[in-house]
Amino acid sequence: LGQNARTLNWQFQRAKINKHRPLDYILSDKYLVRDYIKIKLGSDYLIPLLGVYKMTNEINFQDFSYPIVIKNTHSSGNVIVARDIKDITNEKLESLNNSLKENFFHLTSERQYKFIKPRIIVEKCLLDSNNKLPNDYKFHCFKGEVSFIYCSIDREGLNYRKIYNKIWEPLDVTWSKVNKEDQFNGPDIKSPYKLGEMISIAEYLSKRTNYCRIDLYVVNNVIYFGEYTHYHGGGLHPIKPEKYNRLWGAMYMD
Q: I want to staple 80 with a disulfide (CB 3.0 to 4.6 A). Which of 37, 70, 110, 193 is the partner?
């Protein structure tokens, strides 16, 4: 294995097999993690929750004040953003219901997903001053310290990615699915308002582990918690150039 065994993605694969931390199951559950954040930070950092359901047929969509977000609690990527009830189609609901039958563990071998109870949650949809989904700031932390911030930008427009260090200098690195490196070709952005506070929050939440990713939003000068992730991309997405894979792997192991 040689040098490969020292890379971050390889370290992720080892950890997925060898590490078993009961709290990881709670932190990976998009519903249960809310109680953890409420204890650690307070409820002001939580996106308002509008309901929890077993299936979409339990939901009366007439009851909500839009916009809303509908998503499952046990996997990644299956999300309905509804600015209006007309945005909720039978096709989208069927896809969301089908996702409840899947065990995300079988896709990435991440044990923390194996025993999560599949449910559907409805949350208030956060929108920025331009009435768009806010940028998603993903704080990658090693040993309780933010190393870099992976930004998902303009999700309803150019939908691209940028990576910055904690003093907001751009890093010439990509971390994406195979042949998706062009997602990093968009323009640089300014640092978010309250960046220092966001870093402090991410570092506080990450102290329990060698590595984790803390996702945060800032809307109308208010910081919101998004997600707690243990293995970005399941450790399956290439990091280029490879020197960053080795550097971050050394930080994980040190």
A: 70
| Neighbour count for residue 158 (Cβ, 10 Å) | 11
- Dihedral over alpha carbons 132, 135, 136, 139 (to 10 degrees): -160
**CA distances (Å), 130 to each of 22, 27, 153, 239, in order?**
40, 31, 13, 32
CA atoms within 13 A on the CB side of 196: 0
Q: Is the dihedral of CA 117, 121, 125, 126 positive or negative?
A: negative
114, 105 contact by CB (below 8 A)? yes
**Cα torsion angle, 106, 111, 117, 121, sign:** negative
pLDDT band at 1 (very low <50, low <70, confident <90, very high): low
Instruction: Answer whether 0.90 is exceeded by the pTM.
Output: yes
